[in-house]
Design a protein that fits this description.
heterotrimer; A mainly alpha (285); B mainly alpha (345); C alpha/beta (234); B: 345 residues; mainly alpha; two-stranded antiparallel ribbon; 15 helices; C: 10 strands; globular
């Protein structure tokens, strides 16, 4: 039982990395990025492509992808998505839906449907002994550490820095924020840029932990989304905890039947939605 | 004073709801369109006697696309609820029809509308969950719900689990009759769906819907039962989606969870509505026809075709905000189904 | 040009299809405190929004410090020295009092106003500076809103209905701070629902009626009867 819990937490910590970017983008500009999961997959495939030409360890590739991910997100928001923002959530949804289809099919065309993965070497196979015969993989543990660090960093960014203030102001009241001299379109672009850098890293880690295939995106989006809702909106730590809970629930479901883990996660998500619509740890705004 | 004052779209500005009253822009064209439509229906009804069976099959398929797109359009464009989970009801309609036909001995052709109603009933408790969310999160939440249905049906061995099952109830009927009656069922469903949506939107309720879409709070203060209307639209859209689903699998004779609950259905609906324009009745019709045509010519190109569709959705959304058909309407002032009420100034 | 700091001639503006202003002639001289009064819907707020770039107008429609600034983005206008205290205060709920004030200083120009000086003017804000801004009382929130606008060190301060929803004693407290605000020559435009307050504190006033200037003149010369007539459009 304890082992399940721990494995679930480790699983959830990767979901947290998926979810942080979603939480950030929705929090700052109410944008629902339907292609979110596909961006993760794109990050993984970018790393796979790089790995075929450069003999680097995937982790190094992951770090190297942070900057391009940042740039990609910035350009995407600034030149494509900013034009879709507004009272109506539909345009941004359709555009990101279109992006999702484009990415999935482009990846399918470039890499075929076969699942691929990144060779993490010893990191991927080593494990650490924790007490009574429980062994936890070093890669999942590393993911947990990275996940905690990213959550803390994001929360700190939002709470203590000028940029975080700008994010909160623009999300509260865009018009008045612009009255103060903020350029909302640049602020939005920065938010997406940070989200995409996180996503790139998350994609690489996913590719190391398990296999990826071009059509994996939508499911990852749903996991990220469930984590955000379970955890409660408005708080990155809430999202983190929500992701851990999702991971644990899925892990328990997997024990009963391999086909049930994800289904179980969906059900718990719906249950939380009914009982606690604002999530388990919402930050009052 | 004819100037339009520049609106900074990103600034939330209180505006009077854009509802107007009056007659269509071009009455002569409107009358012509009605006469044309009537003739087309008569010709279409006689198709089984002179047409090829492949035409009837194609029509059934277009009909499903069309009804599903119309209902998605009703929900999103008029109800203001963008859903990525309508495929849940598409699948429920299909499975309900199949269950009634295979296990309850109901005539499958009758089971089609029955399956639709079953979905409508299911939509009510589902709404209790779905309505907890708004906007973009509502959209993804409905997707999760659809996935729950997909996984649930994939685990039910009585309907074949993950690999699905066949509609055995039609085994005894000969091919020509089956195809003909399926075709007529599709024709009736399409006409019924279009008529119902049209009448609904022209009515007081339709107007209330527009008011809610433009400004929920203001509408509530006018005494409009916002919650009730949204539920009504959601249930109607579910029934419509299920009708399309039941019809589709009636024609297909075989159902599986992945086909029934695929998010692609909603993707197709989005494409059709994007091409045709949201919030316009003829939009989904135009969209469905163009989509079917695109499918016919390009689906052999597989991933490239889908990639092109995705790009098109992005481009049209950004540059042709009112949909291609809406752009044409604006350009030439056409309106076949006038539900846009215009202020005569 | 008459050397006015802010001037509009025949300003028209609206929202999409709905026109709100039908030709406003307005002048503000340096160091003046001018009031705009009028019934709800007369276009007072729209006018201020046109000045600050929240509503689009043609470039030459608004002239400030010998420059045409109509239709510029709000950020560019605040950097030129025109700041607004918006109607309804519109503080940022996710930010504390101090963070709200700091936001005002985002586009700061050189000048005397700083966090320290604001806290000296409104001491209660210093006590509550870490609280979420929307947890303060109405009057205190108004102080935050004014302070936020002052943080950019504007040359012209536009106040949109700062007395709205406040008790008379609180209104008095806020307007008592005005001399300290205008001491270094800041020009102020106030939009006011309360006619007596407007007449008392301002040098000149404009009365808007259905998007037009129905009356303009020196505040202490205009009579009650004149104002009534203009206000209600008899």
């Amino acid at each position: 039982m304890i082992e399940n819990l721990l494995q679930g937490v480790l699983l959830g910590s990767l979901y947290a990395l998926f979810a942080l970017g979603l939480s950030l983008m929705f929090g700052v500009m109410r944008l629902t990025n339907v292609a979110h999961g596909d961006f993760v997959v794109l990050g993984a495939y970018a790393a796979i492509a790089i790995a075929t030409v450069l003999p680097w360890h995937p982790l190094a590739i992951g770090v190297a992808l942070l900057l391009p991910g940042f740039g990609f997100g910035y350009a995407l928001q600034r030149y494509v998505l900013n034009g879709t923002l507004g009272k109506d959530p539909l345009p941004s949804m359709v555009v990101t839906f279109g992006l999702s289809i484009v990415i999935q099919n482009a990846l399918l065309q470039l890499f075929s449907a076969d699942p691929r993965s990144l060779d993490a070497g010893a990191l991927g196979t080593d494990s650490v002994q924790i007490g009574a015969g429980i062994a936890l993989g070093t890669l999942p543990l590393l993911i947990l550490i990275i996940s905690i660090a990213c959550t803390a960093a994001l929360q700190l960014l939002f709470d203590r820095t000028a940029l975080g203030r700008a994010f909160r102001a623009v999300s509260d009241d865009r018009e008045i924020a612009e009255l103060m001299g903020l350029d909302a379109s640049k602020i939005y672009a920065l938010a997406t840029a940070i989200a995409c850098a996180l996503i790139a890293l998350a994609g690489v880690l996913q590719g190391m932990r398990t296999t990826v295939s071009p059509s994996d995106g939508p499911l990852l989006l749903l996991f990220a989304f469930e984590a955000v809702i379970i955890g409660g909106m408005g708080s990155f730590w809430g999202t983190f905890i929500g992701a851990l809970i999702l991971g644990v629930v899925q892990q328990i479901g997997f024990q009963f039947d391999p086909g049930w883990g994800i289904w179980f996660g969906h059900l718990v998500f719906l249950a939380v939605l009914v009982v606690r619509p604002r999530g388990l740890f919402p930050r009052t705004r | 004073m004819n100037t339009i004052f520049p609106l900074r779209p990103e600034h939330s500005v209180a505006m009077a709801p854009s509802v107007s009253i009056g007659s269509p822009a071009n009455p002569a064209a409107w009358r012509l369109a009605w006469v044309g439509t009537g003739t087309a229906i008569v010709v279409a009804a006689s198709l089984p006697w002179w047409g090829e069976s492949s035409w009837m099959r194609e029509f059934v398929e277009i009909a499903c696309y069309l009804i599903f797109a119309m209902m998605w359009n009703l929900l999103a464009g008029y109800g203001g609820m963008v859903s990525i989970g309508q495929q849940a009801y598409f699948g429920i309609g299909g499975y309900a029809m199949l269950a009634l036909g295979n296990f309850a001995g109901v005539n499958p052709f009758i089971a089609v509308p029955l399956g639709a109603i079953a979905a409508g009933v299911i939509a009510v408790p589902v709404s209790w969950v779905a309505f907890r969310l708004q906007g973009g999160y509502f959209a993804i939440g409905t997707w999760v719900i659809a996935e729950v249905f997909r996984l649930s049906f994939a685990n039910m061995s009585v309907v074949g689990g993950g690999s699905g099952t066949s509609l055995t109830a039609l085994r005894g009927i000969d091919k020509a009759t089956r195809e003909g009656v399926t075709y007529w069922t599709a024709l009736v469903c399409v006409i019924a769906a279009i008529t119902l949506v049209y009448l609904f939107l022209r009515s007081k309720r339709g107007l209330a819907l527009l008011a809610i879409r433009d400004n929920e709070v203001a509408a509530e203060s006018q005494g409009i039962d916002v919650r009730g209307m949204k539920l009504a639209v959601y249930v109607v859209a579910a029934i419509g989606a299920a009708l399309a689903g039941a019809l589709y699998f009636l024609g297909n004779l075989r159902i599986s969870p992945d086909a029934a609950f695929s998010v692609n259905w909603t993707a197709f609906a989005i494409f059709m509505v994007i091409i045709g324009g949201m919030g316009r009745i003829e939009g989904p019709i135009v969209g469905a026809l163009i989509f079917w045509a695109l499918n016919k010519f390009f689906s052999d190109y597989g991933t490239w075709y889908l990639l092109g569709l995705g790009l098109m959705a992005i481009v049209v959304t950004i540059f042709f905000k009112q949909g291609l058909w809406g752009w044409v309407q604006q350009r030439y002032g056409w309106a076949v189904f006038p539900t846009q009420r215009r202020l005569e100034s | 040009m008459s050397g006015a700091l802010v001037e509009t001639r025949g300003l028209v503006a609206g929202y999409g299809d709905a026109q709100a202003l039908f030709g406003i002639d307005f002048k503000l001289h340096a160091g003046e405190l001018v009031a705009i009064i009028g019934a709800n819907g007369a276009g007072k707020s729209t006018f201020l929004k046109a000045l600050t770039g929240l509503v689009g107008v043609p470039r030459q429609a608004v002239r400030y410090a010998d420059e045409d600034i109509g239709g510029l983005r709000p950020g560019e206008i605040v950097r030129r020295g025109l700041a607004m205290v918006p109607e309804g205060r519109r503080l940022f709920p996710s930010l504390s009092v101090e963070e709200n004030l700091r936001m005002g200083g985002f586009a700061r120009r050189p000048g005397p106003w700083s966090l320290a000086r604001l806290y000296a003017l409104f001491p209660i804000l210093q006590d509550k500076r870490r609280l979420p801004a929307t947890e303060l009382s109405g009057g205190q929130q108004q102080m935050v809103a004014i302070g936020r606008a002052l943080m950019s060190n504007p040359q012209v301060l536009l106040c949109d209905e700062i007395s709205l929803g406040l008790a008379p004693i609180v209104i008095k407290e806020i307007y008592d701070a005005m001399p300290a605000i205008t001491a270094e020559g800041m020009s102020v435009v106030i939009v006011e629902q309360d006619v007596s307050v407007a007449q008392r504190v301002s040098k000149r006033l404009y009365c808007f009626q259905e998007g037009r200037v129905a009356l303009a003149g020196d505040s202490h010369v205009l009579t009650r009867a004149q104002i009534s007539a203009a206000y209600f459009g008899d």
